[in-house]
Amino acid sequence: MLTEATADTPALTIAKFDKALHDRSAFSCGFAPIDNFLKSSLSDQVKAGMVTAWIATADDNPAVLGFYTLGAMAIRANLGPKKWQRAGVPDIPVIYIRAVAVREDRQGTGLGTALVIDALRRCLGIADQMGAAAITLDVLQDDHFDRRWKFYAELGFQPLGDADNPYRVFIPMTDVRASLG
Fold this sequence. Notes:
The chain is α+β, with helices and mostly antiparallel strands. The protein is built from five helices and seven strands.
């Protein structure tokens, strides 16, 4: 995703993570576990094939403004929509958004929405290649939980119904395709 620069806003670029190109050192989203993940664990997880990461920067500045990561996951078929249960398989393939974060000074500017929309579009392409019934994520629990829960609900995510993880939400790929496809 690339946006036009204006006098007030620099051009935004969302590109695949490159350790040599993306400066993570000053990033802080206000949630220490995510900050630590970006700075300390992301490279290893990417190298191990656990996630792919997409980084938002502005203009030619390498400072990370926000990011998201994607990984594969399977959800028990007894969770989610009834049609999953009727599929006759024990697990449903989904794409898991492991993290979405925006630097504190850029929160509330629409960057989080831009990152999620970029992730949803990217997931559509992935689902066309390998099959995935939905996109899922876990809403982080901290002082901003209610704001996050509302944010994802407004984007179309709904509770998965997992008693073991009541903060896991999903959006069916059919809904994403209808909205963005």
